Amino acid sequence: MGRTDPIDSPPEGRDNQDMLAVEVHRGTEDDSRFDTFYVPMSENQSVLDVVTHIQRFLDPGLAYRFACRVGVCGSCAMTVNGIPRWTCRTHVSRVSSNGTLRIGPLKNLPVIRDLVTDMTDFFEKWQKARGRFVEPSDSDTVSDNLGSSTTAASNKSFPVRGENGLYVIPPDGAARSEANAAIECINCGVCYSACDVVRWRSDYFGPAALNRAWAALNDERDGDHEGLLRMISSNGGCHNCHSHQSCATHCPVELNPTQSIAGLKKASVKASFRAGRQK
Amino acid sequence: MNYSTLRNSPSRWHWGLVAAVVHRLSGLLIAVFLPFHFLSLGLAFESEAFSDFIAWTSNPLVKISEFFLVAALAVHFAGGLRILALEFLQFSKAQSFFISLSFAVSIVVGLLFLLSVFS
Amino acid sequence: MNIRSYLVQRISAIVMVPFVVTHLIVIILAVQNGLSAEEILGRTRGSFGWAVFYGVFVLAVSAHAAIGVETVLTEWTTLRQRSATLVAHIFGFLLIIIGLRAIFAVISP
User: Fold this and answer.
1) Do residues A105 and A125 both lie within one domain?
2) Which residue from A38, A33, A27 is spatially nearest to A61, judged by alpha carbons?
3) DSSP-derived pairing of the beta strands A116-117 and A111-113
4) pLDDT tens track for B27-71
5) Does the beta-carbon distance from A237 to C2 stay under 8 Å?
6) Residues whose CB falls within 8 Å of the CB of residue B26, separated by 6 or more in sequence, listed in order
7) Rounded to two decimals, what is the model's pTM?
8) A36 partner at 20 to 30 Å CA-CA among A67, A230, A255, B92?
9) Which chain C residues have a beta carbon less than 8 Å from that of A264?
10) Closest CB from C20, C94, C102 relative to B77
């Protein structure tokens, strides 16, 4: 069993080392508190280094997530001084000016314990915004399990197959360039945690799911753009975004979900006018 | 790519959020005011009642409120233009910052104009 | 918000652009040298043009404000979506009624 009481007096550092005073969220949502730990400062120290030090040397009971430690997996995302960040890519010296740090779990998600959140909602919304690729059928109509039917021909810019049977999509084509801007998302949850509308509306898909839907919409091979547009135009869909751009401000990979969502809004408006004319 | 810290301040406030909250609060103010506006204009069925009402508006407190209401309309309008630009012209984050800035400047200019009128 | 309320919100906003600009100009001109009932009514009484102008304006702003209120109620209060939509509809219809009445009051000679 690890310690659960806060450490009141700082342990002595070596060679007059400066100590960082770190407040760390502990417990669950119903039983929440902040414990203070004192961690020796060093150069080139990341926030993840600090959390690791606490768990290894000060309180083994601290629960937190990490994986790659080098800024490519997104697992270590936490709230640092009020802002969602990748802790492995956050230098302490850049966020802590007076020797203090406040670390908590990502916001807008249920807390399992300490710094660990339950990402279920996040991933379920990702699935719900239908970011999966739907195979087009070679026959005239395609009916997928969303209950919609569409023709590959309704996807205006459907690519042709080359001699080797693969679809020909030029890398610098308009749709591919749009998809390019959105596909680097690694589902770290920082944007979801930063989004005010996610906080205000439990049914809102959120920036990551909608950003992914935009990438899927720009996949010219996808067999069900109509169904995708219908899904993101529903309650909880892209029209709830108020363009705060908190997502774009905090995305560690510098994506811009607000811009992707603007693309979804335009596409859904165009589709609704098309549908109106066809009636 | 710049993976490291984007912001050092311990606050989640940024220009996009400021613009959005200002837009929302100004909209709420106008929405609350509109029923009073329509009902007071409805007094014009009787010229005397309407004249009395207009005379009442020369009260300095009313003048100050009018100032805030007109400012709210101007701010809400400018913020709305920003939203339309972001959504239909798909401006980038940098571009939208300049839209926010230009609307802030235009509000200041507009309000200065109004001030000179009210004094 | 879904695509329908989104479209009404954005379209009413676009429609209102020239109306808001005109209204702001009229306000600024009207308050020059003090606000006066005679000046206001002198402009509006018997004017078909102003009747049409304010008529369209009232319809657009009522739709726009109602959807805005619905959004704020859903996001900033504990009201459920259906209740918020109901309140918004009532608010919108009330605005239309008293707005058109106000136009009638200032236009009819």
Assistant:
1) no
2) A27
3) antiparallel
4) 999 999 999 999 999 988 888 888 889 888 888 888 888 888 888
5) yes
6) B72, B73, B75, B76, B79
7) 0.85
8) A67
9) none
10) C20
CA end-to-end distance (rounded Å), chain B: 53
Q: Which domains does chain C have, with CATH numbers?
A: 3-107 (1.20.1300)
Are A213 and A171 part of one and the same domain?
yes
Tokens at A87, concatenated:
């802790």
Q: Write out chain B residues lying below 8 Å of C24, CB-based.
A: 70, 73-74, 77, 110
All residues of chain A having their beta carbon less than 8 Å from the beta carbon of residue B5 are 85, 90-91, 94-95
Q: Is A239 within 8 Å of C2 when comparing Cβ atoms? A: yes
User: Hunting for tokens 């902040």 — which residue is that?
Assistant: A34
Residues A126 and A256 in one domain: yes
Q: Which domains does chain B have, with CATH numbers?
A: 15-118 (1.20.1300.10)
Asked if A71 and B11 come within 8 Å (Cβ–Cβ), the reply is: no
Looking at this protein, which amino acid is placed at residue A129?
A: A
**Helix H or strand E encompassing A34:** strand A32-40
**Per the CB < 8 Å rule, is A239 touching C1?**
yes
Domains held by chain A: number: 2
Q: Based on the domain organization, do A222 and A131 belong to the same domain?
A: yes
CB contact under 8 A, A239 and C75: no
Residues belonging to chain C with any Cβ–Cβ distance to chain B shorter than 8 Å: 10, 13-14, 17, 20-21, 23-24, 27-28, 31-32, 34-38, 40-41, 58, 61, 65, 68-69, 72, 91, 94-95, 98-99, 101-103, 105-106
The rounded distance, in Å, linking the Cα atoms of A225 and A157 is 11
CATH number of the domain residue A31 falls in:
3.10.20.30
Angle between helices A225-232 and A257-278 in degrees, nearest 10: 110
pLDDT digits (tens, 9 = 90+) for A54-104: 999 999 999 999 999 999 999 999 999 999 999 999 999 988 878 899 999
Distance from CA of B4 to the nearest CA of C (A): 32
Q: Is residue A202 part of a domain?
A: yes
